[in-house]
Amino acid sequence: MNKIGITTTVPVEVLLAAGYQAVDLNNLFITSDKYDQYIEQAERDGFPKNSCAWIKGIYGACLKHNIKEVISVLEGDCSNTHALAEVLKARGITTYPLAYPYSHKLDDVKEAINHFMDLFGVTRKEVEEVRDKLNNIRSLAKEIDRLTWKDSKATGFENHLYQINCSDFTGDVDSFAEELKAKINEIEKRESIDKKVRLGYIGVPPMMDDLYEFVTKFNAYIVYNEVQREFAFPRAKQADNIYQQYYDYTYPYDLDFRLEKIKEQIEVRNLDGLIHYTQSFCYRELEDVVIKEELEIPILNIRGDKSRQLDSRMKLRLEAFLDMLGDLKEGRNEGFRN
Q1: Does domain 124-329 have CATH number 3.30.70.100?
Q2: Which of 114, 221, 224, 236 could be cross-linked to 200 through a Cys-Cys bond (beta carbons 3.0 to 4.6 Å apart)?
Q3: Is-contact 100 114, C-beta < 8 A?
């Protein structure tokens, strides 16, 4: 089975129907013990130091793991992906374009997915058969999400991990399904996590892997991971077909659509505050302006770059934010926005 790299969540049903093993290059990069070497490789090859670490890491992971084919999302994801595709092509790597239409019209989404299916020579029937199988597995990830926010048994990091892995199903669909079942069985036997402050995490998945554990030291608990949850398609079972499923996927489209779903989850999960993560040198940093104007909830913006660990400044700001939220719950503070 040939491997094909993906740089974000794409209609993986099409790739699996075509006989590929999808590999999320983000996950290859960030989970590597030598992740910094991927960044260094990109910089040696000419990537600017003041460019996104994720883009450099994806590039390095692609070369290190000898990935010969890559899906390049040219609309609806990172603004640097188009340039990355050009560099990969210059390195002899085949790239296939995919564009999530900014119009966010169902007809345009249908046209984009049909074009994607044509690229790989698969039929809608074949794709829908794969979609049914994957959505059963996504339901297991959804159960871990429920065990987080409803039963307070799964940790914020587990919530993050198992939903984000739905981008490529860890490269082995059946094995991932069994892993999810075993994890659900383990989580169900736990005592509930007792934390005072209920947090939401919005924005792209974090570079730092110690964020989730750090907040628990201050009587807080992340019970909502926005983009990771979207990667797991929590509303997939309600979609009649693949077109509706990817139309209802918030990440690639306008901010208003994302905010609508975030507002719903703030209410459903009874959140006390939000951490909005942005990546250095990413255009999505500008979205923080609108997010803070539109959401009536305390929000802390933290900005990551190359490090996989929270630095001292981030820790101080997080501690102050969490202390404030604790005071708010006890009626001792007016609010916080930063």
Answers
A1: no
A2: 224
A3: no
